[in-house]
Amino acid sequence: MLYKPAKKRLTEKELEDKPYLGTLYIRPDDKLKALRGAQRGFSTDLSDRIMKGRLEDLVEIKRDLTVIIDETLSEPRSGHLGVLPDYVSSIVDGYATQPELIKYLARIAHTDYSTAIHSLNVMALTIGYCYHTKQSMEKTRTLALSALLHDIGKPEINPEILIAPRRLTDKEFSEMQQHPLIGVDILTEYGSQFAVAIPGMLHHHLRLDGTGYPEGLRGRPISEAGRLLAIIDSYEVMTNDDRMYRSAIRPYDALVELKKEVDAGKYDRKIFAEFAYSLVDSQ
């Protein structure tokens, strides 16, 4: 798909006078229509692949999803996020027939780690948790969407900060702390469509002892989705091999580290236990 470069806005006059400008451009509405068409085809293809139950089909599913998610997250204010709830529903509904397959989705490695891949992995782990805890389909879709969008504000953070192969400076970390608030601003532009995803996204870096960011809430005011995503987000970061500044640790060791944080009052003990058991179920 070829379209205008990111963040470049074309005037009506430019489109009339030079419809291609040396490159093939399409309007945002055309791109959204194309993404919706791709989503319908993906949903049909997803059902066929799930029925086959083959790991190689799951690899292709993750590859396709990564491209789609990266495409929509790269310009989140463009209106293209509107396709993501349908993708989430397709995945949740599809894997309801064979939930054992969801356990593989977050394990399939890609060579280039990105916000899109991280978000997809967190969503897969969240769906696994929902199946283990027997959440309703509606709640599973809500939590999965929250997981997929939890880092939606990161594309507007300086990319040099996002990929820095070192510990961030205080100033850089202060900028990084803004990404949940940026995410709220982005999703608010869509009206009520993504309202259910905002609490988890806003709270996923908060801790029960009052630490974390951006609001410094303590205990119960932190949403259930925020409590869950705080654990799953941290777990995924610790166990992924593709971070430049440190090596991944084993899933068991990651759970040991998270348990220390639970004992220190930072994470929800019950949610942590259920998440750990959901991983055991998937072994």
Please give a structural write-up:
- With 283 residues, the chain is mostly helical.
- The chain has 14 helices and no strands.
- The protein has helices at 12-17, 28-52, 55-73, 84-95, 102-105, 115-132, 137-148, 159-162, 170-176, 179-188, 198-203, 224-239, 251-263, 269-281.
- The longest helix has 25 residues, at 28-52.
- The protein is globular.
- The chain starts with 11 loop residues before the first helix and ends with a helix.
- 36% of the residues are buried.
Q: How is the secondary structure organized here?
A:
Elements: H1 12-17, H2 28-52, H3 55-73, H4 84-95, H5 102-105, H6 115-132, H7 137-148, H8 159-162, H9 170-176, H10 179-188, H11 198-203, H12 224-239, H13 251-263, H14 269-281
Low-confidence stretches: none
**Rg (C-alpha, Å):** 19 Å
Kindly state the percentage of residues in helix.
55-70%
What is the average per-residue confidence, as pLDDT, rounded to a whole number? 80
C-alpha geometry: globular
Order of helices and strands: HHHHHHHHHHHHHH
What is the distance, rounded to the nearest whole angstrom, between the alpha carbons of the first and last residues?
39 Å
Number of strands: 0
Task: Give descriptors for this structure.
283 residues, 0% strand, globular, mainly alpha
